[in-house]
Amino acid sequence: MSFDFLSRRKYKIANSYSNPKEYAAWYSMLDRCYNTENQAWNNYGGRGISVCDRWLGEDGLDNFCKDMGPPLPDQSIDRIDNSLGYSPDNCRWASAKQQARNRRSSKLITIGEETKSMAEWCEVYNIQYSLVKDRIQDGWDPLKAFTTPKKRTYLNVGDKFNYWTIISKVDDCNKYNCRCKCDKEAIVAAFDLMNNKSIQCKSCSKLGNTYASKNK
Ligand SMILES: [Zn+2]
Q: How many Å lie between the centroid of ligand 1 and the Cα of residue 207?
């Protein structure tokens, strides 16, 4: 459908239409997407952003009004996913403030051919949101930000944590073979060692020889 065809019909509708706000939103949406002279075209039509057939056809404006309902005075049309076009599923009325907030909180990230919110990508890659957020803010490449595992803190053989001394690392996990002061050995997680969750072997615990009490 050519823009000339659309614009001719739109002008006809405009004169008789009773919802000026909806009309204005609908018109400028089409203009951004199909009029190469529009100043914003580069960011819309030029990027492949289009309007769904339902809003383009003979009853386009009527369908648009039916689907969207009336906007509040300070609202304009907002695409939920910025990589997608104008359609009932992807559009809502939102104030400039709401739109800015949405852009901040649900920053959309494109990896390969797919665009998702940061939270959705975090689920896909099973990685902590706050970790990725910091990386993206630091300017990391998105794919790298989601796929680089959290840096592990490696402990060394001979390191001492309370009663424990590290003997060796357990393969493929962040756990260590440790020797207690009493010479019993056990596997202890690095987190437990570093956070004093495990300070000695079970026997020593039972005897009440806690590191803390001994050092009082
Ligand atoms: Zn012990």
A: 9
- Domain boundaries defined on the chain: 3-105, 107-151, 160-214
Full pLDDT tens readout for the chain, 216 residues:
444 545 555 555 554 456 778 888 998 899 999 999 988 898 899 989 999 999 997 788 889 989 999 898 889 999 877 778 999 988 999 888 777 766 655 578 888 888 888 878 888 888 887 788 888 888 889 999 998 887 666 788 999 999 999 999 888 778 899 999 999 999 999 888 988 889 999 999 887 655 444 443
Which residue has tokens 């437990």? 192
Q: Which helix (H) or strand (E) holds 115?
A: strand 114-117
Ligand 1: distance of its center to the CA of 173 in Å? Answer: 23
Give dist(CA 3, CA 200) in Å, integer.
Answer: 77
Cα–Cα dist 134/164, whole Å? 34
Give helix 118-125 / helix 129-137 axis angle, nearest 10°.
Answer: 120
Ligand 1 center–CA 61 separation, angstroms: 78
Ligand 1 geometric centre to CA of 198 (Å): 11
